[in-house]
Structure formats: C-alpha cells, structure tokens
Design brief:
5 helices; mainly alpha
Length: 143
C-alpha cells in the first residue's frame, strides 16, 4: 500500500469491477433494450431478459461478498472488544449495532473504549464513528 488509509480514502474501488464489468453489463442491457424496441419479438425479449438477469446477478454476487465480510467483521470486533474493553463496557458489547461494530474496526486499541462508550451513549452511526476515529487502524482487506 503506497498511501496510508484514512477516512477520506478507505473506500475500495476494484477497477475491473467498477470500470469494466458493470459498464459492459449495463451497456449490454441498453443495447438489448434498443434491439427489442427496434425489432420486437421473442428472441429480442429473451436476450433483454437475460441481459437484465446478468446485470442483477453481478450486483448480487458483489453484495453477497460484502455482506459476508460484514458478518466476519462483526465477529472479529466482538472478540477484540471482549479482549480490550474494561467492565462495565464489556458487558454492553451486545448493545452495539452491526453498523457500529463495522465502524469501530477502524479505531485503534487505545481509543476503542472511549469510542465504544460514545457510540453506545450517543447512538453514533457507522459514519459518525469513522469520523470520530483519531488514530486510524487500516483495513486493506475489504472486498
């Protein structure tokens, strides 16, 4: 990694996905729709339906990976919190929402207890938690 990860640059873009696969599949839907409009018929309708199905399927496959990763992050963060947090915060781990757990992964161990307390007391969102992190703990493995 050439540049340290921060709040402003932590979102991941996969060039082959974002700049090739998605545009090609979207263009395919548009072209199939154009041909269906110009030359109505069963084959044109079928090609259009299949192109829409491929486009939707590609998006779902990507979302399955990110949902699975979020589940893994939740487990990792619960284990990390159990090891780091003092009582009585440790007993409140179950009160954290999934989004809060996912946002907390970027907080360093040193600032984690105070940030967990704030997240619970102020009901901070994932975005608010990430904005509150002062010592960013990078996650370079995001799908």
């Amino acid at each position: 990694m050439s540049k340290p990860q921060t709040l402003s640059n932590h979102a991941k873009f996969d060039p082959s996905w974002h700049f090739f696969v998605v545009p090609v599949l979207l263009i395919n839907v548009i072209v199939a729709g154009y041909y269906l409009f110009r030359y109505p018929g069963f084959i044109g309708a079928w090609v259009f339906v299949v192109s829409v199905a491929l486009f939707i399927n590609s998006g779902r496959m990507r979302s399955y990976a990110t949902h699975l990763q979020d589940r893994i992050i939740r487990v990792e963060e619960r284990l990390r919190l159990a090891a780091i947090l003092p009582e009585p915060l440790r007993s409140r781990i179950g009160e954290l929402t999934d989004d809060q757990l996912i946002g907390l992964r970027f907080a360093s161990d040193a600032e984690l207890p105070a940030l967990v307390k704030r997240a619970l007391d102020e009901k901070l969102s994932r975005a608010d938690i990430k904005k509150a992190v002062t010592n960013w703990r990078p996650d370079y493995s995001r799908v």
